[in-house]
Amino acid sequence: MTRRPRGLAPATALAAVAALTLTACGSGGAGQDGAATGGTPVSGGTFTLAVNDDPGSLSPLTGVSLVQRGLVPFGYESLVYTTEDGETIPWLAESWEESPTSITYTLKEGITCADGTEFTAETAAANIAYHADPEHGTFWFGSNVTADMTATADGRTLTIATTATNPFLLQSTGAVEMVCQAGLDDPETLTDATNGTALYELADATAGADYTYAKRDGYTWGPDGVTSETAGLPDEIVARVIRDEATAANLLLSGELNAASVIGADRARVDAAGLDSVGVLNPIGQMLFNERPDRPTADERVRRALALALDREAVGELVTDGQYLESVSLVNKTPLTCVADGPLWELPETDLDAAGDLLDEAGYPAGADGARDLTIRFIYDGGTPSHGAAAEEVQAEWDALGITTELVAEDSAGWAADLYQTYDWDTGFVQLAPGSPVVLSLFFLGAHSEEGGYNFMAVDNPEYDALAEQALVAPDADTACGLWLEAERELIERVDTLPVADTLSPTYLNGATVEMPGSIMPTSVRMLG
Question: Is the separation of the CB atoms in 140 and 64 below 8 Å?
């Protein structure tokens, strides 16, 4: 098998809103011949994009920040490539064969690493084995790669087997970024350098400022036949750390940037300039809750009351800067696995009386002045312009219920400290961006972060856990998706998360076109003249 559409992706029957996320803004992805802007591909030069924070570690093995994960594809590649339309096509693997408990990939010939060594099926197997070891605590462990997986190599073939039925072996193992052997042998070297098979490799880095990736010679194994000689490829890709969105918009309009995400007030003037864009769904208004025993949000009644006290549409209009979309799934990135038949859940309507009763039951009665002895620490991204205004609206709405809301605008250091070290938060605009319910489960089913897992909310939802465990070993994709949808409903009904609002976040382009199935794919970048 060399090419097939994903039966669970947008190409089939996604809900209307979810389907629009791949196309509504999109001329960039389709315009690889330059037709979108009237230009023609011009090889060479530098493609410069803005990122709104420093990525910290560049290792593809660890890290969960959106900026860090967005830069991983510039240095590392996967066995298969998922297009913007949700189609699976060959990348490092030229073909594959699946069974309910195994998948066998045949790798392309001539693949080399950034350090000049050959990338082999043995190295690919070593990657799977590394991720399958719970001691390593990698990004993909427990979701795409599980402890029961084994990997073996024979010539150019890689076989991955599981002890239980897994209906999503291609979607899961095919997405894992492959690290070259020297990187696996010494993972610490991947913090500030790259060692993968990608078309580009890290050439220079200044933390907090910019990261420069240089095009490699002799690259022949890209998706859809991309090589080092493909017309329109830049010689360099530079990611510039620009935390202020207005500054990014100015540099984009002046031509100093080729790509930047603009989602706040400056979006109107960028739109007015007529720039093309590619859009991805952004769960910008998602709220998560800290459920550790010492937090008030450990009590389901408190979480439910907070949800009932919100006017979701009013908050949603602010957090999306007027680009509000109602959420239809907690899975919001390509390939949008299992989204087509959902959701099974419904979000609660505003009901202040019911919210007040729940807080009374939880031990937070209103005093004579209407105030309650309840303080909620609400965190949000200080670098997202619309988050501040929306957080103030949340504060005002909860104030009407007698709740004191402490607003905290986080930077990257604050996020790391509060979510993974001090755990000093109750709720806030904290987003997850999974492409499948299996990846989503990493955060809700997985070990708590104190135990080395990614469940930084300390969620313990037995109903969700039971359904997720069944879904992970379901005999086929249809059965698995049905179980995952039921599991997702349990998260919503228990208020482990509240998807207040989604939006379509555009990445605007000037002088270039790209494909962006999730993040910008470097093999798709074409400079225009």
Answer: no
